[in-house]
Amino acid sequence: MSRKIGFIDESGDKSIHFEKKGVTTFFIVTAIIVNESNVNKVRKGFLEIARKYTQAPEIKSNSKTFKNIDKRIKFLKAISSLDFRIYSVIVDKRKVFENSGLQFRDSFYKYVNGLLDHELYDYYPYLKLISDNHGTDKFMNEFINYVEKNHNQTELFRGPEFKFSDSVDEPLIQLADFIAGSIARCYEPNKIELRSPEVLQILDKHILHLREWPESPPKLIKNIEVGDEKYDKEMVNFIFFKIEEFINANQERAEIEIKNQIICLNYLIYRFKKNPYEYVFSDEIIDRIKVRDVLLTKRQFGRDVISNLRSNKILIVSSQSGYKIPCSKADIIKFYNNYTSKIIPMIETLGKADIVIKNATSGKINLLLDDDFELLKDLIKTVSSK
């Protein structure tokens, strides 16, 4: 499996007292994942692009240069040509209770970073992580101890596999900072503006998952009007509850098949939040699974990923347009019609084949009289009577 390096930085402050002036509502930690063999190329490309926009010693998302959304969008379009992946944990601090113990800056920060590190392992079993410096040496040492203690694969973080670096010295941490700050433009109430949705449109091909915590109910990036018949909130909340239940129950399992299913769900969740009405082609999901160096054909994907998820009572609908998490009765009808258009012709074909076989053998072969085919006989009879 190819070696990867993750560069980590954040947007927002660690305090959960979001009601206070100047305290952010969201805290976002972002990892930029790059192939180890490609790090120098991506770093060089980022620096070349950065020099065209600012002469500052480092790129900072909150700098005056990028307060203007138009300049931010142009810079995002430029860096989107680079080869990297994005995984973010987005914490809505309004859902974090102060009596949870996470009200303390260090506890909150460690927990969220631990969540990111743990979930990245689902995508990249062999991963070196480099994070921006934060706080004192004592705090950083405590953070490393926390990650090692709470991560199943502790060998992943020994020695040089997990370290801190100053963003001034590592441009790809600056890239992580800029991406985290740009994603915040789609979540932070006082930062959202008319062109904010363009941020995710530009970064879409790079995104593995935008992991919101707490996850349920889902926070949609696309605005849905109250009473929209195309969006059944009760159904959506139940489906997301089942998805979260499945992920929580299987997060610790090491089987490749389970990891593939979780990656598939993560991407469908992200795309649903971006636009709950949009279908996703299987190629896009397979491409996300491929980051683990797992190559699936469309047939294997349908059999080993989608079918197994459905067997676990995860509702995923499909059509000629691809796959999606359903959000309305119309989605379910389309799903049923899609299967009906395939199943009924197959049953009709079997019925015709049965007639030919009986005629060709003078009735000696009449499989529909066998108990094993009693259900099929009833189905053929039902379809032919219509």
Q: What coarse outline follows from CA principal-axis ratios?
A: elongated
Structural class: alpha/beta
Terminal CA distance: 54 Å
Number of domains: 3
Q: Spell the H/E element sequence.
A: EEHHEHEHEHHEHHHHEEHH
CATH domain topology of the largest domain: Nucleotidyltransferase, domain 5
CATH superfamily of the largest domain: Ribonuclease H-like superfamily/Ribonuclease H
Note the total helix count: 12
Count all strands and give the number.
8
User: Which stretches are low in confidence, meaning pLDDT under 50 for 5 or more residues running?
Assistant: 151-160
| CA gyration radius, whole angstroms | 25 Å
**Name of the top-level CATH class of the largest domain:** Alpha Beta
What does this structure look like?
This protein has a six-stranded mixed β-sheet. Strands 7-8 form a two-stranded antiparallel sheet. Helices cover 47% and strands 13% of the residues. The chain folds into three domains: 4-213, Ribonuclease H-like superfamily/Ribonuclease H (Nucleotidyltransferase, domain 5, 2-Layer Sandwich); 236-327; 345-384, no CATH class. Strand 4, helix 4 and strand 5 form a beta-alpha-beta unit. The protein is of the alpha/beta class and 386 residues long. It has twelve helices and eight strands. It is elongated, with a radius of gyration of 25 Å.
Could you give a quick summary of the protein structure above?
It is built from twelve helices and eight strands. The protein has helices at residues 39-51, 69-79, 105-123, 137-150, 171-184, 197-203, 233-250, 256-274, 282-289, 298-311, 329-360, 374-384; strands at 4-11, 26-35, 85-92, 127-132, 162-165, 207-213, 317-319, 322-324.
